Predict the structure.
Amino acid sequence: MEKPRTTADSNGKQKVRSAEVGTDILKALAQLSPSTSLSRLAEHVQMPASKVHRYLQALIASGFAEQNSATNHYGLGREALRVGLAALNSMDVVKVAALPLSELRDELNETCFLAVWGNQGATVVHIEPAVRAVTVVTQLGSVLPLLSSSTGLVFGAFLPQRETAELRHQEVLATEAHPLADEPAYASLCEQIRQRGLHHVHGLLMPGVDALSAPVFNALGQVVAVLTIVGPASLFHADENGPAARRLLAATRAVSWRMGYEPDASPE
């Protein structure tokens, strides 16, 4: 026989529901940042303005929201900023990408790796090797060239130019008649990579080896890593419109989302 609901059960469920409503309003304040009116906020969360106002007063009292005395608009408060910064600091892209990288390798059975931008350039920090006799050996800690690898070129497309200018200059000087020595040609390629959201190379860094790379972004929209699939051209086809590319983009989007990146988030 089912036990009758107690007052404690009802109170507990009510508190959970109140917490859910409060977080919905906090999310809406973030989406409508830097500030918004009560009516716009109520419309966004699809709640009566009077109800939203009650929750806002509680959020203001706890420091998670604030009201501009000049405009009467509402925005996120100091405590919300502290929580957000703590969450950002806890986001380790290597840890976040570990499972998606492993799943990508399992699906494609090609070597997949994650690179971050270090002092010397694109540096391999995590590798999931293909499980078969014919594979491509990529070393942990390897530094990949900016202009001769899909990983480096993706970093070059999304990083601020000041961070890559010196390395590009060095690589151009080290290679006679480098095809990307021409500034307009390099800028055009970077723009194409940004538009497509990924890049592939066929035997550019190593003869007979194809590679396909895509960026990972953080909550600020900054590139924090590049995920790359690499394999022998006889087995792996780095087609930017192929199934491997679609799976790569799904993986990088999932990691970026976990890092707090929301490309489609915009105020209504």
User: Anything to note?
Assistant: DSSP finds nine helices and eight strands in the chain. The beta strands are 65-67, 74-76, 111-118, 121-128, 143-144, 199-202, 209-217, 223-232. The radius of gyration is 24 Å.
